[in-house]
Amino acid sequence: MNLKWHLLSRIAIAAVLCLLAMSYYALRRSAGQVDALVDASADSLARQLDYQLLMGRSGYPSAAGFPDFELWKQTSRVPGLCVGFETPDGRVVRHVCTGAALAAAQWPVWFDVLYRRGFGAEPVGRREVGLNSALQGTVVVEAGAELTVARAWATLTDLAELSALTVLTISGLVYLAVGRALRPAGDVAAGLARLARGELDYRLPEYALLEWRLIGAAINRLADSQQRLLSERQRLAARLLQVQEDERRHLARELHDDFGQALAAINAVNAAIAQTARRDCPELLAETERIARYTRGLHDGLRGLTTRLRPAELDELGLAAALAALIRSWQRPAANHTRYALKIDGDCRLLTADAATAVYRLVQEGINNIAKHSGAGQAEICLTIAERAELTISDDGCAEGLPFADGPGIGLVGMRERVTALGGRFELVVRQPHGLRVRVSLPLPEQAVE
């Protein structure tokens, strides 16, 4: 439930409670008004009968005889009100009602039952009538249940209609006002979502309401702080990667120069020994051949190590040649059962040296992960260079969910850090029905884009 409907539900509950309280007050007041009407009618009728007694004593009796209710019946306009006259011995000598009888169908049965239980429905007013302290009888005024319940029901329906109209009007105005006041909430949620996606340059506007303005300012300060931290982290990561690549380049050169020359010297000495052994001591030829095999193995291992540290093709022939050589090295039947396909669209020379190195390392790490973990039969590496450098590494391996927060490896983490250091975007997507796709987007230098 959103905040608008939450507030409206609370307003509706409060309105219902207020309506119940007001209804009770209105019904209690209606019952009091009927009681007052009965008492007033009893007083008025008692005075009329006293006057009739006085006129009768003076020689002007009523033509209808005492007690005469005709005057009261003609002047009373309250339907459902009945009067009677009781003699001192309890006999009712006359009983009349005014107005037409009210039909009980004007109100529901449940209301009739509840009202009778709660307030009573037949108030009675009694007044003694006499002359010169001689009691002639008692006038009795009764309000029928129809009168009291009808008045209460009319009061309740009028109140309910007014309350319903008021609540609907207030709810509509509150809904519009709250909706207008909460409109920035959508902007704030969308802004937080953009910040969560890494768009740290996004800023919320300044709002008119103080609370939203404070929230927007706090979020913008947080974004500024995160952007500074990310910028510092990217600079640090870029510097660390540069130092790492420089160290790899230095180690590769040292291995090639020192160990390579040493192995070449060993091969030369071994060749001279073999030549002398063929002439003077043929028994040593087997040993020289064994030495030659060892040196060839060391040379192959050294060449593989230097390639992993820093492939010569990357510095001498460029990124495209280095990637092609990398793919060829994994296409050997003995290397892996996965078949790799490389597709390059665009000019790799548009990439900076750091970006070219990053792309090579990403492909190298991606292929290594595929070979170790995926069990894939096919893998595809696509590099597109246009407005940005877009790299996609896809396989049809066994992955069915996003990897792999609880795994021990740091390959994917290293790939993400390398991309983040260059200001790029890194994304993992599970292929259907299984397999993994790595998407990398790196910015190009401004002059290259132009």
From TrEMBL:
GO cellular component annotations of the record: membrane
Listed transmembrane segments: 7-27
Membrane among keywords: yes
Subcellular location as annotated: Membrane
InterPro entries cross-referenced by the UniProt entry: HAMP_dom, HATPase_C_sf, HATPase_dom, Sensor_HK_TwoCompSys, Sig_transdc_His_kin_sub3_dim/P
Domain spans labelled HAMP: 179-231
Pfam families referenced in this protein's UniProt entry, alphabetically: HATPase_c, HisKA_3
GO molecular function: phosphorelay sensor kinase activity; protein dimerization activity
Record keywords, A-Z: Kinase, Membrane, Phosphoprotein, Transferase, Transmembrane, Transmembrane helix, Two-component regulatory system
Protein known as: HAMP domain-containing protein
Lineage: Bacteria, Pseudomonadati, Pseudomonadota, Gammaproteobacteria, Methylococcales
